[in-house]
Amino acid sequence: xxxxxxxxxLILKIHKIGKGExxxxxxxxxxxxxxxxxxxxxxxxxxxxxxxxxxxxxKYKKDIDILKNEIFLLKEENKKRDLMIKEIxxxxxxxxxxxxxxxxxxxxxxxxxxxxxxxxxxxKRLKNINYFKNKEISxxxxxxxxxxxxxxxxxxxxxxxVPKTIxxxxxxxxxxxxxxxxxxxxxxxxxxxxDENCFIFSLDLKKIYNPIKGKDKYYFKEDHxxxxxxxxxxxxxxxxxxLNINKKELANNFFKSFDKDYEINGxxxxxxxxxxxxxxxxx
Length: 283
Known about the structure:
The chain is 33% helix and 25% strand. It has helices at 35-105, 116-126, 145-148, 152-159; strands at 2-4, 7-15, 21-29, 138-144, 165-171, 176-181, 190-192, 199-202, 207-209, 218-220, 227-228, 240-242, 270-282. The protein starts with a strand and ends with a strand.
């Protein structure tokens, strides 16, 4: 509202997007009129004002409808965009989970295995076992000699009752070998002869040794550590240990593919363990 000389003007501006503006104005003559006269004058003009507003609404109705439709379309596009963003995030998270799973599969919490090809040797052989075919597998450390203590008592406390385990040994000379058993470790003393899926391996020679059917393969006993036909650990795992073979000619009776006696231990009968780890295979 503005006051110029004796005229009071009430101006209503209506802006139309992109097309300038329209003006509706009511002029009230001052002329020393009384407040009542001004009100009466204003009351007479209000119907005209309403009429002008209706005219403008009709005039811009088409444009308003177009604008409303554009707003609706924008909202729909935003919904599609939000849905697409959600799907992309889900795909990204799924990809990350797959990559993380693959990373975990090809990793192992080991002080002995330090090379990818060492783990791949074991993984490849495990995949030949029907139980593990077409499955992702990982390794859970359940016993480590330097962490848990190097006695058979602690070994059995940690490992008894656990099936499908990998045992890995590193000697003080740096040789690395071990074995897989499918059955649970036990403390009761007896030889296992019916585990056709067990095997032993040399990480240094990159060789897998499979058992001969019906022959003794590995040994359970309370006062022994993990004990395979080709090698074993006695009561104190970190003092002098001997291969569980009394005569050299027996070395090839239980496992196949040995080129020489005590091959996995560099041809020597005795070894001393520097580290020993046992892993539960999870699939």
